[in-house]
Fold this protein.
Amino acid sequence: MIFHHWKNTYWLAALLLALCANTAQAQLNIFACEPEWAALARTLAGDTARVYSATTAQQDPHHIQARPSLIAKVRRADMLVCTGAELEVGWLPLLLRKSGNAKIQAGQAAYFMATDHVALLEKPSVLDRSLGDIHAAGNPHMHLDPYRVQQVAEALASTLVTIDPANTNNYQKNLRNFIHEWSQAITQWEKQTLELRGKRIVVNHNNWIYLERWLGLERLAVLESRPGIPPSSSHLAKVLAQLKQKPADMILYASYQNNKPALWLSKKTGLPVVGLAFSPSDKENLIQWFDRALHQLLRADL
Amino acid sequence: MGKSLLMAVITVTLFNSSLVFASSETDAIQQQLDAIKKEYGQAIKALEDRLLKAEKGAQVANDQAQKLALQLEQSNTARTSSSAQNSFNPAISLILDGRFASFDNNPEDYELPGFALGNEAGLREKGLSIGHSELTMSANIDDQFFGQMTLAFDEHDGETETELEEAFIQTLGLGNGFTLKAGRFFSEIGYLNQQHGHAWDFSDAPLIYRGLFGDQLIDDGVQMTWLAPTDTFLQLGAELFGGSRFPAGGTTSGIGAWTAFADIGGDIGIEHSWQLGVSHWRSDNIKDRKSGGHAHGTGEAETPSFSGDSKISALDLVYKWAPKGNPNNQNFKFQFEYFDRDEDGEVLMLNSGPPLETTLYDGDQKGWYAQAVYQFKPQWQVGFRYDRLDSNNRGSDADVLTEAGLDNEGHKPQRYSATLEWLPSEFSRLRLQYNHDESYEKTDHQLFLQYTMSLGSHAAHQF
């Protein structure tokens, strides 16, 4: 009897040990809210981190459910890399509260919000929900501007150093390499996309402002009459009439958005439609993803 | 004499020579001073030059900074400053709810044979009425705590009642997966219980929630949960309650009720997710839990009162599907819950007699519901639900049992519900619901048209 009791305790201890060993890995667990930040974290951390992306390019980061699997991931995270500016307001706060993880709560160094480190465009002067699902801090979709991505990379590298000083050299070296390659890529992209300058586009949701600014695209119309509200047929008819007056060059929608309104408009106008890869796939790094997305635009322009 | 002369000569000679020596030293110092002066002059000149250069540089830098600042300003990037007093105000959200209800039967006649109804249980008013309005305030208190309070406004018999529905604090920084909650909160028993009514997919609570909890189990106490550090979601938790609120009851000192629960969940691929939970609620010391009984024509209503012990066991399952894991355009949700309650004690009819009518009571009540909700396009959703209850209560006095509404009268309550919802945005919802209600022998057809609107800060909804 005593032996059995002892044996039980032994097993329990072994189980607890196994659980602890599981958490006490040398590798840093990074929870990224979107694939672009997962890709950036992978590039900057290299082998020193295990990076998990909460979403894919097919999922709308505004509307993610606080699934049990995500809570379990946040529970074990050493660091959070998200967009911020209320993009994840519908699910991230809940994950944090349920996680029981002190390390990654708001205000901690490991709570990294990319939009805290760049200047945002389109900060609304009037906050009213009749204007749709607007973000008080400004338009959060800034990962489509390579210069801002570089600013985020610098901030992320220094946060990694703060959290994991033992690997300082690694992070600094990776950042140097990234910036070197990224700057070269920017020069090349800007050369390649010269022909896109001044092109007129119609977009599904207003999440392209940073790309528009960078490439010099001109936005003629948005299919959603208000951000976050699915396009109504009356508004689509208005856009169609507007395009007859002033034709556009292409229609853009993000890979996770409902493509029906864009396809409808394309059928009516004969304009090319691009379902742009809004985020990298899980195997791509940021340079490969930008390459692919820009080629999608260039191809549509032919 | 000769000696003193010699002394004088020596002295003069010495004095003179020292004078000569002094004069040559002054020259050297003078020269050195000149050299130093020259050197310093050059150094100062160099410094002045550098200062001038630096000033020019600063000018250029300043110009550039101004240009950048201008650019930043043009791109409308002003960061919000946190100096204003109200920027630390808690997040406020307001739920407005109203409905039109139509019943074939008189809602006053509603009963659930085998279940003594208490708390909020029952049908609400016929016709137009406002529903359950809620005001919620929440915020991180500091780096260790989160706090939330919800005031609920309800209409009861022509009077507006305000109820403190939730008021709790919760730890953020315990770490190692532990979270402690204290105050008044929704118990984690079952699945639906911990969600606010406005987040439910139907206008009314499942019959088993109505029968056991009077719609929802809220109590004052503490809750501890632990989340396992595993890839599969595994949560264990326990709650200690004062136990003065339905379906516990009475004045108890210390701990009147407790719960224990475990949830496990995860994803299957990218499109499917699930959660399975078991939970148990127990109160060993219920005193005078009042509930509504049979209406008795004229005179003061006799009210059943239960004293004894009560145990509830529950099983819940939730499954969700979204194409490509993106629930925004289309999604599907299935949920199932089963409850079983076992009670032992005594039932007393207040205001009866004399002598007071009383019976020993051995209660066995169970029930389940299953529901499926399908959002088939971005703004539209349909839902179906089936409810089923059963009971096998025994007592020493069958008549008293019947009077207390605890005899099932040979009837097994069931209900079919269907909804159609229009969701203009994530902040608003219009719902049409039909119930084919066989709660008691006379079948009722119920129709609801309901709006639910959410104002203020963006709500985050649980899985």
User: Anything to note?
Assistant: Chain A touches chain B through 56 residues (CB under 8 Å). Chain A has a mean pLDDT of 90.
